[in-house]
Amino acid sequence: MKKITIAIDGFSSTGKSTVAKQLAKALNYVYVDSGAMYRAVTLYAMQHGIISEAYFNVDRLVTELDHVQIGFKYNATLGFAEVYLNGKNVENDIRTLEVSQHVSRVAEISEVRRMLVRQQQVMGKEKGVVMDGRDIGTVVFPDAELKFFMTASAETRAKRRYKELLERHEHVSYEDVLKNVMSRDLIDSTREDSPLIKAQDALEIDNSDMSLVAQFEKLYNMAQRVINQE
Ligand code: CDP
Ligand code: CDP
What we know:
CATH architecture: 3-Layer(aba) Sandwich
Low-confidence stretches: none
Domain Cytidylate kinase: 6-223
Family: Belongs to the cytidylate kinase family. Type 1 subfamily.
Largest sheet: 5 strands, parallel
Strand order of the largest sheet: 2-6-1-7-8
CATH topology: Rossmann fold
Structural class: alpha/beta
GO biological process, one term: nucleobase-containing small molecule interconversion
Helix content: 40-55%
Oligomer: single chain
GO molecular function: ATP binding; CMP kinase activity; dCMP kinase activity
Number of domains: 1
Radius of gyration: 17 Å
Pfam family, one: Cytidylate_kin
CATH superfamily: P-loop containing nucleotide triphosphate hydrolases
Distance between the termini: 8 Å
Bound molecules: cytidine-5'-diphosphate
């Protein structure tokens, strides 16, 4: 059967990565978390004194991009590929609220985007890929056979992310999580280079009141329909 490319874009904590992983597993496709790559570059910048709350040396980050090696390695126990930064597994380190508070400023930089988009296009060139992010259906794979655009209310999304961070034993306040979700929404959708916008041919899904099961079924049925047409 012909393999297709599935692009899932949308706002933070709309369940993109959860449903992308489920789809990849069900279809025997590769899952790529493009946000993890922006988070890994951000972690590099934090670890090397390039970015903090009060400071961001954009020129230094751009000069040092050659030193930022990002890779994915499949973890059979988890059932998905974990992200590596310069040979070190950073799957957990990139998910902190601190990384979330810096990542959208890093993702605004065109040189960063160019480097990561190139890598993402290589990872998806054989098709049979489900990739989630902000610009997958618009910039990375504009010709993807199936595109979704996920939304939900900011409060619903912040509640989901807050619960996740607590489960990871990160003690943050709900207010800070909501503030971060809203500030990333704004930066991501208004930046000049590859803003978060719905691709014209993407199917919009508001999952504020949709369970994970219902959401998976909806996307899986759509995927089957498109695959059968190919
Ligand atoms: O999981 P969550 O939705 O919180 O975020 P993510 O997918 O890990 O992405 C983190 C950040 O990376 C986003 O807020 C964007 O600023 C940036 N990003 C992007 O610009 N383009 C992508 N394709 C993926 C992520
Ligand atoms: O990748 P993205 O940031 O869009 O979201 P995610 O990491 O897949 O989902 C964020 C959290 O919301 C996870 O804990 C999901 O289980 C939860 N979620 C939910 O409870 N119901 C949904 N319909 C979608 C996501």
